[in-house]
Amino acid sequence: MLGFIWRQLRGRAGRSVALLAGVLVATTGFVVLTGATTTSHLDVIGTVERNTQVAYEILVRPHGTRTPLEAERGLVRPNYLSGLFGGITTEQYEQVKQVPGIEVAAPIAMLGYSTTLLPTPIDLTEAVDRSLDQQVIRVDPTFHAERGLSSAPGKPRYVYVTTKPLIYPRIEQGFDSAAVPYSDGRSYPASDTCGPVPREVQPNGRSLPICDPGYALLGNPGTYSEREDWSLHAVHLRPDGRFQADSSVLATDRDNTSAPSDRLVMAYDLTVPFLLAAVDPAAEEQLVGLDDAVVTGRSIRTDDTVAVNRGGTVDYHQIPVLVTNRPFIDVSLTARFSRLAISPAGVEVIDLEETLSRPAGTPAGSGRYDLTAGHGAMLAEELLQAGCCRGQLQTVVQSAEVQYDQLPDGSLRARPQPPGDPQVYGRMETFNPLPRPWLADDTGSRSIRALPLPTGASTPNRFWRAVGVFDPGRLAGFSDLGQLPLETYQAPTAEGADDRSRAALGGQPLTPSGNPAGYLSAPPLLLTNLGSVPKLLTGGGGSQAKAPISAIRVRVADVGGYSERSAEQVRLVAEQIAARTGLDVDITLGSSGAPQTVELPAGSFGRPMLRLTENWSALGVASVITQAVDRKSMVLFVLVLVVCVLFLGNAVSAAVRDRRSELAVLSCLGWPVRRIAALILGEVALLGLVAGLLALVLAIPLGIALGIDVDWRRAALAVPVALLLAVAAGLVPALRAARTHPAAALRPIVAPAGWVRRPRTLFGLALVNLARTPGRTFLGAGALAIGVAALTLVTAAAWAFRGAIVGSLLGDVVSLSVRGADTVAAAATVLLGAAAVADVLYLNIRDRAAELATLRAIGWTDAELGRLVGYEGLALGLVGSTTGAAIGLASAGWLIGALPGVLLLVAALVALAGALVSAAAALVPTALLPRLRPARLLAEE
């Protein structure tokens, strides 16, 4: 049988090669194009909280940001940005902005924690005994955080109050330590250990220095904790009962005027880390109404630049920021006062601490001081002067994400982290003018690192200065933040989850402590513009300089609230963002609070282990990036195979009709029905097998050339696909051939169309000829109609609907988006349909060769015969194209629920293109007409 099959194929080499080429093209195209369907597809899962409004519907983060816990539970921690520093390039941000359907894309670049000093003025007026000529008020501070559960004592601060006159140094740039000018007009030497300090004038006219421990004992402030900071300040109790000191000693002396004051209020500052972030001011205004939230000064602007000022040998870089009017940090200070009857005047600095700590002293009161009050006081006072508020940027601290362990009961346990390396806050070679926060030495929940910034002798002095103050409470939607845990400016809280924890917290929620390594982190409290980031990061050598953006918050156009249609629109935009950028994309539309129980291990400063209920974000329309096959693309690619089956089926049927005499003879010789069917199927299957093997060889290099990933497993599919394709195409013709009676060989190949009238025009004759082979005509027109329908739908989505159609089908919201592979598949389907039309015309010419020869013999010219065949091709093309365009138009209209004019235009243009392609395909069989030999054909007839 195999030998017989091989001889049959070799004997009809031309037809065999044509069939082989058809199977090869369809199979190779299918295998390669399906390689483009395994894409990052965004599946929408879960139940939606339909009444939730959000400031943005899509959250874009760097690739790999999504944690395993987040992926498993579909949850996002509050203040997810606090541990996310960079990872998105400006080029990727531009790609996101170019995605159709986006109303605003607001980037945010988290830079890290800048420490600043918040005033916590301590009123010591009542602690002063005005009857004494000399006294030292000792202030013993205790730092508190986390609802008072974490506490730590600090070193005492000392205020020396004397009725004797004080003189103060008047230091200028490059002063001579051997002769420091003082306020009395004289000059005094400054020792290497004591420094230029106030001097107390004695009755004999001499003056004694009141040494400052910060000059020689403490060193670089960035190398020690604020708990280790201590000081000695001198205050003059004037005869009129008022107090006077050198600049910055009294809290009432913020303007450095050293003016006398009725009250002795010591300037005490707490070191507080403020999270600095950079935004696009215009996008932030669109997203949350940032300009309307400014309460003092002005908002940050896109064109604000880093001010560079020269001071001696050092450059000063001033970063413009917008500062919040709420610190969102739970830190307070208590202090006990005692009065010491001693004088530190003239005591060497090395002996100063021992001298001051020796006497027990007389209790003189206490006080409690809140950080929020100090922050408000700073804003109120400094905004009235030359600009508000500043903080250092010599050292910027970044914290990592919290790591969790899952407990047997389903709750989470924050994995404890050892205290961060103190050098993160400052080293001797990296001058930080501020000590590290006291709670930085606590057991944390995050690891910390320093943002890579330029260092060295020529490093500029970097700091931020506020241009305005904003109130987060005025941001759009802020009143609903309790229900929207994903908001950028929300301060996270955690309630006690059991009676013991609630009692420890005093019935109040746990709030951020001000420790960058702590469990809860405050939202961004400082906002600058993205244009300032390169000036800050250039020269540091860190990766964030190349990819500064931490997240992009996207609002989708025309999404006013939740609906199934809106959800599908958002999903479609999110999918395009993921495909274009490769970033992690989450849908926040419909997000809602999902309380999680978290166990927080005990801290180093007294906080016990707490079980907390924290309001995480459940993505109501949850999004999961999956490697899935685009079903719509698969439908298009399968249509390529369907059209190929029609094409091959028509060709095999023609081959069977051409061999009907031969098959009749075989039947008369006793061949059973199944053997005749096996002969036909065997020939087609062998061609399919060869085509599959060739496709296996061609698929991988073709995929490389087209930039499509085709691995060997996918390429191996070519063999079974080609084999099944060939068998499916040859099955019906083989069964018909096996069941045909031998007498059928005596019947004409082309049947007359007795039901039609005699045609009076050439076009009418063409229609009659098509009607004489209805099956063949149906296959050709159907193949073309399938291709045109697919192309109509794809063109409508790509051109009329900006790349995607979103609508409702049988009550379910569906979408159709267009990718490059889809367009290729649709175009290939049309071309295969046109090839089927050409094949139909060729077979018609071959089967009616005797008729055409007769027409030529009676005087018809080649031009008239060519027009006849051309009209047949045009009619076939019009029927197929019109039908296909109507199907595509109806499908798109059904999907969107309307038929806009642009959709009708698309359908008309595609139908016209299909008809023209079909007419062009008719030129190939028309060119065969001159090869007809009338004499030989009439003799055979």
Automatic annotation (TrEMBL):
This is FtsX-like permease family protein. Belongs to the ABC-4 integral membrane protein family. Keywords: Cell membrane, Membrane, Transmembrane, Transmembrane helix. It comes from Micromonospora violae. InterPro entries: ABC3_permease_C (IPR003838), Macrolide_Exporter_MacB (IPR050250). One of its GO terms (cellular component) is plasma membrane. Its main location: membrane. Residues 635-742, 824-922 form the ABC3 transporter permease C-terminal domain.
